[in-house]
Specification:
The chain is an alpha+beta fold and 134 residues long. Helices cover 28% and strands 28% of the residues. Helix 2 crosses helix 5. The chain is globular, with a radius of gyration of 17 Å.
């Protein structure tokens, strides 16, 4: 990709290496492509997901998000509250079908709720980057 353009501008163009493979399609994705799935435009219909913030979002564990703000609030601690994430609804469904986001019923205390689990560090980094949380 650097070829002629790189020679014309005098700059090398670096092509990003795929870092994750979709479980269903087997398609390889770069970190930039994953980040772009969390972005949208004014014409998109968005799905809102929530995180009871703890201060450990940038750690090495999975990122747990919830379908409802009230359920996510049961996880908030260390003086943090609930953060709202938005993703184009079509992209969210695509990421679930590709295995990047896993859904499960969870229970915290006596409260039950639908959880979204992001285990892959590339996908986790992408959502935290888009939400500007680290």
């Amino acid at each position: 990709m650097g070829g002629i353009w790189g020679r014309l501008t005098g700059r090398a163009i670096v092509q990003e290496t795929p870092v994750i493979v979709g479980e269903v399609s087997g398609r390889a994705y770069t970190a930039e492509q994953i980040t772009n799935l969390f972005k949208g435009n004014s014409n998109d219909i968005y799905k809102f997901i929530y995180r009871g913030m703890t201060g450990s979002e940038g750690g090495s564990g999975a990122l747990f998000l919830a379908d409802e703000a009230a359920y996510a609030a049961t996880y908030a601690k260390n003086g943090y509250s609930v953060a709202t994430f938005q993703i184009p609804a079509q992209n969210f469904q695509y990421m679930v079908s590709e295995g990047f986001i896993r859904t499960q019923m969870g229970m915290h205390g006596t409260t039950k709720g639908l959880e979204y689990v992001i285990s892959n560090p590339v996908v986790k980094e992408a959502i935290l980057k888009v939400a500007r949380i680290k």
